Amino acid sequence: MPDEYAGIVALVVALVVALGALVALLVVWRRARTQQHAVAERDAQRTRDGEARGMLLAVVINPSKEGAADVRAVVERVCAEAALPDPLFYETAVDDPGTGQARQALADGADVVVAAGGDGTVRAVAEALAGTGHPMGLIPVGTGNLLARNLDLPLTSVPDAVAVVVGGTDRAIDVGRARVSEFAPDAEPLVDGDPHRAHIFLVIAGLGFDAAMVADADDQLKARVGWVAYFLAGARHLHGRRMRAIIRLDDGEAVEARLRSIMVGNCGRLPGGLTLLPDAVIDDGELDVAAIDTRGGLAGWAQLLGEVVAQGLGVRNDLPGKIGRIDHTRARRAVIRVDDGEQAQVDGDPLGSAVELETWVEPGALVVRTG
Which of 148, 232, 284, 370 could join 140 in a cystine, given CB atoms 3.0 to 4.6 angstroms apart? Predict the structure, then answer.
């Protein structure tokens, strides 16, 4: 009898414990559901408020760009004609090229945050908007205008660009991240803040010749002749040495190569009608990797130019013995290490001389207003 009594007591205790756990689970579930409903209602209310007042645009504008005043006037006119609220304007500064301004725009209730400037302004605004779900609009008034170029947005007409911002559709695109995990000895990082932080890129990050070309491009010359300034800067590096690079893609084995440049891109169209990464898709969840090499002096560079032009037209060849070549592959993550340090860049912004550069993709992280 004592044994039977002890068994009954144990059973009752177990039932009480199980019932208590069930009650606790129900309480947690109810709280979670209540929070979910509250968040959904808050978001729905924001949507209703936005629809009631109309879309609120916030423009992060680089005042140093030619035509900045025209951008402000056109945006104000288009918003007035569309019966939209008065747009908000935030100017970039030397110590903040647009990230802080874009975050403030979101805090001020903006529905769409517009980057009006060059590639640096676009990258800074994207840094603030990536992962938020809020769309970014583009009014390209820079030198390369790389993202707008790859999204087939208007490049030369501010009114046309504003029309896309107001009446376009939203598209989620991938973003790349790049981090210099090791700088060259005695090298000075060319970025503010933590030099080892991850930098967003929307088009291409590179190490080697391309980054040296970007670092040496004269700002005043860029303002006068546009993207041609990069090619003039690149001419000074045509006879530079090839770099020895160790490259690891995803979880694969590291491979060694002699190269002029290695670029990791989200999309591949460049100024001048050149297509560097013909297979790149801006929302495929992968990065395209291009390894560029030349030998034989100017003859090698001439053959490389022919290769780039041909691949833009859909023509490729894998003939052996080429003295100028560009090889392609894809990866979600790439780590590149070089012997003594090479210049690194993201979307045309130099990072400094790097010994090791890490890059990876964040699929669908940025929403962009497109045509």
Answer: 148
Residue 122 contacts by C-beta under 8 Å, 6 or more apart in sequence? 115, 136, 138, 140, 142, 147, 148, 202, 347
Rg over alpha carbons for the chain, rounded to the nearest Å, is: 26
Looking at residue 56, what is its pLDDT?
A: 97
Residue ranges and CATH numbers for the domains of the chain are: 53-167 (3.40.50.10330), 175-364 (2.60.200.40)
Asked if residue 183 has pLDDT above 60, the reply is yes
> 261: which strand partners?
208, 292
- Beta carbons of 58 and 108 less than 8 angstroms apart: yes
Please give the structure tokens belonging to residue 275. Answer: 């297509």
Q: Which tens digit of pLDDT belongs to each residue from 351-370?
A: 999 999 999 999 999 999 99
Q: Who contacts 236 (Cβ-Cβ below 8 Å, separation ≥6)?
A: 216
Estimate to the nearest angstrom the gap between the alpha carbon of 274 and the chain centroid: 20
| 137-174 burial code (b ≥16 CB/10 A, e <16) | bbbbbbbbbbbbbbbebbeeebeebbbbbbebeebebb
What is the pTM for the complete model shown? 0.80
| Geometric angle at alpha carbon 168, from 80 and 61, rounded to 5° | 60
